[in-house]
Design brief:
about 35% helix, 3 helices, mainly alpha, extended
């Protein structure tokens, strides 16, 4: 499989949940911040369980105000 330039310029959102010492969490966060073309938009840490929820297309449209009125 060959990668085209356009394949490398895709913007994505991703989430991950790690279990480990706080120092490792800080190291991962700092590494992401050091990437020149990447902006860390949101991050959180907790001693309680966290959940990642994937939203559907319809939910995103409602947030933008683009849903059709019935």
């Amino acid at each position: 499989m060959t990668l085209e330039k356009r394949d490398l310029e895709v913007f994505v959102s991703f989430g991950f949940i790690c279990h480990g010492p706080l120092a490792d969490y800080v190291a991962v966060r700092d590494f992401i911040r050091s990437l020149p073309k990447t902006r860390l938009v949101y991050h959180t840490g907790s001693t309680r369980k966290l959940r990642i929820v994937r939203e559907g297309k319809h939910e995103r449209e409602e947030e933008r105000g683009n849903s059709e009125k019935v």
